[in-house]
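Take a careful look at the protein record below. Let me know whether the structure tokens fit the sequence:
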Amino acid sequence: APDVKALGAVLMDEKSGRVLWEKNAFEPLANASTTKIMTCILAIESGKLEETVTASKNAASQPKTRMGLSSGEEIKLKDLLYALMLQSSNDAAVAIAEHLAGSVEDFCDMMDSKARELGAADTNFETPNGLDSGEHHSTAYDMAVITCYALKNEEFVNIINTKQITVKSDRCTYTIINKNRLLNEYEGAIGVKTGFTGKAGNCFVGAAERDGMTLVSVVLGSGW
């Protein structure tokens, strides 16, 4: 068996959902910015990607990592998804949540509802960006289930595989660079999301396709 130091980990076949290997895969753990996978797929499924989002003071005041939105700044929802997934912008996550649900709390209810629908039974989202908060957690298994679902969406796959893009708001031009090194370093890599907080440690959800098979891997609490 592989020697994986993470507190929780899983390897799953994307097509069938079959678990090929796991370590504490059903243990509730903080999951940092891997949370943004759910934020992204909900935004895509909203059908509102061309709408203009106005950043609130709350969104603009989110801690690093952030793209640098200012209160009242206007930007297309789809452009926020690149900042969300490529460079893990916390302000983008809150702007998305508030635009789609009216508040972060109501958006988190949407996230939880979708998780339960997908069979992610031990996931509790309290933020759309994964910053440490109360009982915010998931499991390696649940994150793999959510990711397998998201990877079936072509728009999602296109976003997470973008290596660099320039987007514009009514105030700024942003150059967004993908932080996922595996896209350049691992044959067949197709994303998905990095993460780190003080509570969660290093987290990563990865996916790769070779010879017609796509595998999804998740590590949570993989060192500090």
